[in-house]
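STRUCTURE:
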């Protein structure tokens, strides 16, 4: 079994990171989870996260959220 992360399978690990980031954003800003998810997906951090070559997927959701709040 091939366990390498590639651009073709990166999408499999992103939802859990986005979900946790959105929860933290919603809690910190008293906004709906839907609005928080939209903000995460619109962020520069997510743009880098969805590119395997940046290796941002190595980071956990807390580190990614802190970078997004940056």
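SEQUENCE:
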């Amino acid at each position: 079994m091939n366990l390498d992360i590639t651009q073709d399978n990166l999408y499999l690990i992103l939802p859990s990171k986005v979900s946790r980031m959105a929860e933290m954003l919603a809690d910190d800003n008293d906004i709906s989870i839907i609005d928080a998810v939209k903000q995460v997906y619109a962020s520069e951090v997510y743009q880098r996260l969805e590119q395997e070559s940046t290796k941002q997927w190595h980071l956990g959701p807390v580190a990614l959220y802190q970078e997004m709040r940056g």
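REMARK: Helices lie at 14-29, 33-42, 44-49, 61-69.
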